[in-house]
Specification:
With about 190 residues, the protein is α+β, with helices and mostly antiparallel strands. Helices cover about 25% and strands about 30% of the residues. It has a single domain, classed as Aminopeptidase (3-Layer(aba) Sandwich). The longest helix has 15 residues. The two termini are about 25 Å apart.
């Protein structure tokens, strides 16, 4: 196994992305039409990347950036690659793109039952700012809303409160994070 390489997502990737979507998100998976619609907004307001290893897509992520704010729309990592730093690699790319686009803050939603993703985001300096009850459909799972400030001159890096007290890090790397299917394209959410 080599280190995965990041590259821009294209419509040619949709079959592989859809397989991962279904495996990771089941009933809450995005459809081909939703993903194609998101890619149609790239690069104007979207930034989607895939992580590829030996010709296989093992992860992907997407960002919405407009008006000085960015939203993590989705992060997904193949279950066979959890705990290997791929979630961090994808999030670092999204945060770096937000800086390139001169965003000053990044938002996301994460499923209340996805503690792996929550630890990853805390490790990267995101703070909990609220809860949205019954946000994810059709499961009705709550979403925790998180936010991180960005400096236009610094490259984003880990080191949030969870990192300082030793409770997170690569061991807390997320396996899946994403915006709910029903709200795709309407804001920055991660599950």
């Amino acid at each position: 196994m080599t280190k995965p390489q990041l590259r821009p997502m294209t419509t040619a990737d949709l079959d592989a992305i859809l397989r991962l979507e279904l495996a990771l998100f089941g009933d809450e998976a995005w459809s081909r039409q939703m993903l194609a619609g998101e890619l149609g907004q790239q690069p104007a307001s979207r930034h989607y990347v895939v992580a590829e290893d030996d010709g296989q897509i093992v992860g992907y992520a997407g960002l919405l950036a407009a008006g000085g704010q960015a939203d993590v729309l989705t992060i997904a990592v193949a279950m066979t690659r959890w705990g290997q730093g791929l979630g961090s690699m994808l999030l670092a790319e999204l945060l770096a793109e937000a800086v390139r686009r001169r965003c000053t803050e990044v938002f996301l939603e994460v499923r209340a039952d996805n503690t792996r993703a929550q630890r990853l985001y805390q490790w990267w300096g995101f703070a909990k700012i609220g809860v949205r009850r019954g946000y994810y459909q059709p499961s009705g799972t709550d979403a925790i809303v998180m936010r991180r400030e960005l400096s236009g001159t610094d490259q984003p890096r880990p080191g949030g409160p969870a990192d300082r007290d030793g409770t997170a890090g690569e061991g807390g790397q997320a396996g899946t994070a994403r915006q709910p299917r029903a709200a795709a394209g309407s804001g920055g959410e991660a599950q």
